[in-house]
Design a protein that fits this description.
Layout lengths: L1 H24 L12 H17 L2 E2 L6 E2 L3 H11 L1 H18 L4 H14 L4 H6 L2 H26 L7 H72 L4 H29 L7 E4 H18 L2 E8 L4 E4 L1 H17 L5 E9 L3 E8 L6 H6 L14 H12 L3 E7 L3 E9 L1 H6 L1
Parallel strand pairs: 4-6
Antiparallel strand pairs: 1-2, 3-5, 6-7, 7-9, 8-9
């Protein structure tokens, strides 16, 4: 009994082995059992049935040797189709001929019937629900063993052993294992379908967020332009007042153009000339630009440490845009005022620009979602600024690291390759 259980467990492992390998190697989002990976799965199932044949086990009586080769053959034929079934038949037949011994011819005949007959059930099998699939594959398994029993007696004169004591137990044994195998495959496929549906939903959600953000942001300047044009059409204004209206309209058009440019930067970033820049000087320049805005929000801005030797290769203006977005977010995160500190540090291989504020901070979930379309921690924010910032830094082979705690502030770190290292290469 112990030897039988050991052999059965080995055979079960040989059957489960292809499914484990498939889960490990199949590409996420491109999984489709025995379709996207037909070659790989055919090889794995071939290995499975050969191992089952090489390591059979005694079943109930010492004189009856049994293995589970029919499981990968039937499963492969149902999920893989005629071509896979034919390949598995060739592998099983060659292996059985090499092994030799009693019952070879009935085994070859049985394998041929499985290879030819089972693929005809595939269209039906793929249409029915999971419970009916289990019933069908269980029935095919029992039928294959019944064929062995009666074909052996009819064609080769093999004596029919104890039907109750041996054959019914064989049918239950193999039928249960093949049903469990099918359940595992169906569960894997259900998970794959759910994952693919999630990816499609996520893409559609991103598109809808973009559409919402564009309409929301463009509506304000367009409505202003429309309003001034209607006023100028319906009423007579002085030349000075018309010039004032024209200037307002032009400002709104400029705002709309900047918004569209920001979206284009995210969707398909385009950069001017990449040039080596001294990071400390660029940070000081951006600091001067943002000081009036910070003063208006009662925020104190200063530098803690500026490494004058730190140098990176980047588009100067896009870098300034990204840094301005981060600083503005830090200032707006301190509605009651606070401090914002900039530092620049470097090593032989890396350059770090840190922006630290004493603002409201963010939760781990908010940090994780930074840079997503239409996500913002601000009530009236669209998330466009940080989305563009992440796109700029990423496309310039940089990285953004965020460390934040609710109520204690946030630290943004921009990490780039040190230009000295790039030059040495």
């Amino acid at each position: 009994m112990e030897a039988m259980m050991t052999g059965m467990i080995n055979n079960i492992f040989f059957i489960v082995f292809p499914l484990i390998v498939y889960q490990m190697l199949a590409t996420a989002g491109q999984r489709n059992f025995f379709v996207s990976h037909r070659f790989m799965m055919t090889v794995l199932f071939s290995v499975s049935l050969v191992l089952c044949m090489l390591f059979p086990y005694q079943f109930i009586t010492d004189g009856y040797i049994f293995d589970l080769r029919q499981v990968p053959m039937i499963v492969g034929a149902l999920y893989g189709g005629p071509l896979v079934s034919a390949i598995l038949f060739l592998v099983a037949s060659i292996s059985r001929i090499i092994i030799g011994g009693d019952g070879m011819y009935i085994a070859l005949l049985n394998q041929f019937v499985i290879a030819v007959g089972v693929p005809f059930f595939r269209p039906l099998y793929m249409r029915i629900n999971r419970s009916r699939k289990i019933m069908l594959i269980f029935s095919i398994s029992i039928t294959s063993l019944l064929f062995n029993l009666f074909a052996g007696a009819f064609f080769f004169g093999n004596p029919i052993h104890d039907i109750v004591g041996i054959w019914i137990m064989l049918m239950i044994n193999q039928g249960t294992i093949i049903a469990l195998t099918a359940l595992m495959i169906e569960h894997m496929q259900r998970q794959e379908y759910m994952y693919e549906a999630f990816l499609k939903h996520e893409k559609m959600e991103t598109v809808s967020h973009f559409a919402a953000a564009v309409s929301h942001e463009l509506r304000n300047p367009l409505q202003s332009i429309k309003g001034f044009v209607q006023l100028m059409k319906e009423y007579e204004y002085s030349r000075e007042r018309q010039i004032e209206f024209h200037q307002t309209i032009l400002r709104e058009i400029d705002a709309a153009e900047e918004l569209i440019e920001d979206y284009l930067v995210y969707a398909k970033p385009t950069y001017g000339q990449l040039e080596p820049i001294i990071v400390a000087s660029e940070v000081s320049h951006v600091l001067k630009i943002m000081v009036p805005y910070a003063n208006g929000k009662d925020v104190e801005m200063h530098t803690d440490e500026l490494d004058e030797s730190a140098e990176i290769l980047i588009d100067r203006y896009k870098f300034q845009q990204a840094l301005v977005n981060i600083i503005r977010n830090g200032i707006e995160a301190m509605p009651e005022g606070g401090k914002l500190v900039l530092t620049v540090k470097s090593s032989p291989t890396k350059v770090w620009i840190r922006v630290t504020d004493t603002g409201v901070g963010m939760t781990k979930e908010q940090v994780r979602r930074l840079g997503e379309p239409y996500f913002s921690s601000k009530l009236k924010g669209t998330g466009l600024g940080m989305m563009v910032t992440y796109s700029i830094i990423s496309q310039m082979e940089g990285q953004i690291l965020v460390d934040s705690e609710k109520g204690k502030g946030t630290e943004f770190t921009l990490e780039f390759a040190n230009l000295a290292t790039t030059k040495s290469k």
